[in-house]
Amino acid sequence: MRHACKGALAALLLSLAGLAGSATYVDVPGGRFASVLGNDASAGQAGVAPYRMRATPVTRGEFKAFLRTYPQWRRENAPRVFVDADYLAGDGTLFTPDAADDQPITRVSWFAAQAFCEAEGARLPSWLEWEYAAAADATRVDARDDPAWRAQILNWYARPATQALPAVGRQTNLHGVADLHGVVWEWVDDFNALLVSADSRSASDPDKLKFCGAGAISLQQRENYAVLMRVALLSSLQATDSTSTLGFRCVRPTTRASTP
Questions:
Q1: Confidence category of residue 224, pLDDT binned at 50, 70, 90
Q2: Fewer CB in a 10 Å sphere around the end CB: N or C, the chain?
Q3: Is 199 helix (H, G, I), strand (E, B) or coil?
């Protein structure tokens, strides 16, 4: 579905020209790290070039401004090929006087999230970019080997989904990126390719997509259950899907030299 709709999405994006210049982006230096998606031969090692990432998830207030400028993405106007029936459910509450503008926007499809980022002169992050930034805590570039840190993240999954979402900007890591854990799940650009093995990327391969249990066999860092849950969730989605706990943030290129 995602690739079949690319032409139509490109046409819809032609009118998007610099929505918001006020969003805060911070530099993420990039580097080599052990990705959960690595195979046994590479020991999970992946290289990530430097980039700039939104400091917080996109908020309801920011998405409300986007809808005012680009009403074609309002719930009642968005083409059904780009959104599902739950897209922006309760859209009207975005425009009420008591709307919680500092909460992250949710119930947004991959297409709508990508359109917002395009309007901001950005794009959705790749999984590796997201995973690299999310590996950091307040003092360490990679805190994933710390059992206490992993347990803190897992506590988020115990929180009832019915609880109100918190305001963004609560927990900032070493890179200056906040709320990568404990607020919402987040879209990544390549969400539907996370469990495709390195030797199974041709369209003719009947085993191209290896979802959930089957795909997890080849994943690294199996003790990092929170990361595996995130991979499994994202891999199960369609680009039109939207849920009450799924939001997004954007990334931009940086002028720093690329990581080898």
A1: low
A2: C
A3: coil
What distances in angstroms separate CA 131 from CA 33, 47, 73, 120, 143, one per listed residue? 10, 12, 28, 22, 12
Using DSSP's 3-state secondary structure scheme, residue 252 falls into: strand
3-state helix, strand, coil in the chain (%, to 5): 30, 10, 60
Question: Hey, is 13 helix, strand or coil?
Answer: helix
Which phi and psi angles does 224 have, rounded to 5°? -90, 75
Interval 222-229 mean pLDDT: 68
Alpha helices in 102-224, H assignment, sequence order = 110-119, 127-134, 147-157, 212-216
Tokens 């059904």 — which residue? 80
Are the CB atoms for 36 and 224 separated by under 8 Å? yes
DSSP bridge partners of 186 = 247
Q: How confident is the model at residue 111 (pLDDT cuts 50, 70, 90)?
A: very high
Instruction: From residue 210, give the alpha-carbon distance in Å to each of 175, 185, 189, 231.
Output: 33, 21, 18, 12
DSSP state of 54: E
Mean pLDDT of 217-231: 64
pLDDT tens figures, 122-133 = 999 999 999 999
The CATH class of the 6-253 domain is alpha beta
Are the CB atoms for 248 and 108 separated by under 8 Å? Answer: yes
Backbone angles phi, psi at 100, to 5 degrees: -85, 85
